[in-house]
C-alpha cells in the first residue's frame, strides 16, 4: 500500500521544484506574494486531492472486504494523516533540488528506500525496545506500515480497528495504533520544520542563505512579524554624481551644465556596496537617485554591476553595506511593503505555459491588488490588455505566444496593480525591431506616476526612452545625466547629411565633393567632411559653430542643389551611438 503513495510524492515534489526551475516562485515573491501564502496554496491543493483519494481508498478497502470489520472513518483519518506527512515530506525534499525531473526521480528512489526500516521493524519488533521502535517511526513510511500491520492484525481477529481499542497494544508494553497515528502527525510537523529551516539555508538560484543559527536571532522574528523599525527617509532631489573623468569634461559633483530637474525621488541607493562570498565586489559605494515620473536607463558592460543593482532592487540580494530606499521605505527592513508597490520584468519571461494571457494578468492582479473587487480586477485587466495590445490574444496560452507577445505580457504584469516602482531587466531583449518599437510605446504610456528603471545594451533605446542615463563601470557610477547632457558633453556637434543624385553616384568626381565642402565652409569654417561613401555626404558641424550662419547655409544649399548634383539635405543632432566609444565600450564592433 505504501508504494501507491510513491507517485503522489514524486508528483508533488516535481511540481514544487518546477515552479522553482522556471523561477515563477521567486517571481511571484518579487511581485509581493508572501512565501507563506505560496506554501499554503500548494499545501491545500495537494491535501484536497489526497483527501479525495483517501476517502475513495477507505471506501474501497471497506466494501471489498479487506478492512471489513474496521471503522471506515478511522481508516480514512489514518490515510489522511499519512497524506499530510507525504505532503510535508515532499516539501522537505524539494528544498534540495533545482531540476524538476531530477527531483522526481530521486524522490521516487528515496521513497522506496525509506520503507526498508519497516521491514527491519516487522522482522525484529519482538527484539526492539519501545524507544527504538519509536525512533524508527520518525520515518512516516515506517509508522504507516506499522499502522497497517495493526489494522490487519485486528482484522484477523475479526475486530478491526475501532475507537474503543485504538490504544490497546497487541503485546504488553508495545506500540499502539493510536500512538502510531500521533507519530505520523509528529513526523509531518518535523518534516515541515526541516523544510522551512533548510529552505532558508539553501534558498535556491536566487537570494542568499541565512546563517545556521537564524532561528535564534531576534532580527529574523522581528522581520517575520513585521516589527522591524520602519525607516522613512527624506531624499534630496538634486542628486547628480560623476566620477573624476566626467568632471574633467565640465561637470561637478553638484551641478552640471543645466542643473538636473530631478523631481520627486522614488528610489535612492545610498553608499551601496555589494560583495559576494568570494570577495568579488560587484557594486562599490554607489549613491544614485531615481525620480518619479521618469524613466532611467542603466548602461554598462557585462560585469559593470547592472544585474546586481537590479537584483538588489528586486529584493533578491541584500546589499553588503549601504541603504536602499524605495518610496520612502527601507528595502532591508520593509521588504514586504516595498514589494507591494514594486513591479518586475525579468530578462527572461517567467510565464506558466498552460495559463492564458488573461489568466496571467488576473493572477498577478490578485497578488498585487487583493483589495480590488472582481469587477475592478476585470476592468484593470481589460485596460492592461488594451495598453499592451494583447486583447486579440487574451485567450491564448503562453506557450503559443511569440517572443514579442511574451515580452508585452511580462511588461503588462510588471505594471499591474498600480505599481509605483517598476524594474525592467533588458525589456526588449530577444525581440525583433518592430516589436521593440511597440514595447517602447508601452513603456512611455506607463511613465506617469511611476519610477521606471531599466537596463539595456541598446543606446538608441536608452536615448528614446530615458529621462536620465546612468553609466556604470566596474561597480561604480561613471556618470548620471540626461541623454542630452551626455551628447552635449561628449558629442561632436550637429550632423549635416546631403543626398547625392542617383545618376551620378558612380561617377561623381572628388572635385564635386570639394565644391560642396567649399560652399559649406563659407558659412561654417569649422565644418568638415566625415563620410562620403554610398549615396550620402556627411559633414560634422562642431558644437561651438555659430548657429546664426545656419540660415544662410540652408539658403545657399537650396539654390545650388542641382549644380552640386544633390537631391536634398538634413541636419540632425548627435545620437548616443555617436558618443565616443570610450564612454560606451560595449558598442565597439
Describe the overall structure.
One of its GO terms (cellular component) is membrane. Its main location: membrane. The chain crosses the membrane at residues 39-61, 73-96, 102-123, 135-154, 174-198. This protein has helices at residues 6-21, 24-30, 35-63, 72-94, 100-114, 116-124, 130-136, 140-156, 177-201, 218-224, 244-247, 306-314, 335-340, 357-368, 374-387, 403-414, 433-445, 459-465, 483-490, 510-523, 550-560; strands spanning 265-275, 281-291, 294-299, 321-326, 329-330, 342-345, 421-425, 451-455, 468-473, 476-481, 494-500, 528-531, 536-541, 566-572. It has 589 residues and is an alpha/beta fold. It has three domains: 1-205, no CATH class; 265-488, Rossmann fold (3-Layer(aba) Sandwich), CATH 3.40.50.300; 492-573, Alpha-Beta Plaits, CATH 3.30.70.600. It has a six-stranded mixed β-sheet with strand order 6-7-8-3-9-10, with helices on both faces. Strands 2-1-4-5 form a four-stranded antiparallel β-sheet. Strands 12-13-11-14 form a four-stranded antiparallel β-sheet, covered by helices on one side. α1 packs antiparallel against α5 (100-114), α4 runs antiparallel to α8 and α20 (510-523) packs antiparallel against α21 (550-560). The two termini are 65 Å apart. The model is unreliable at 227-260 (pLDDT under 50).
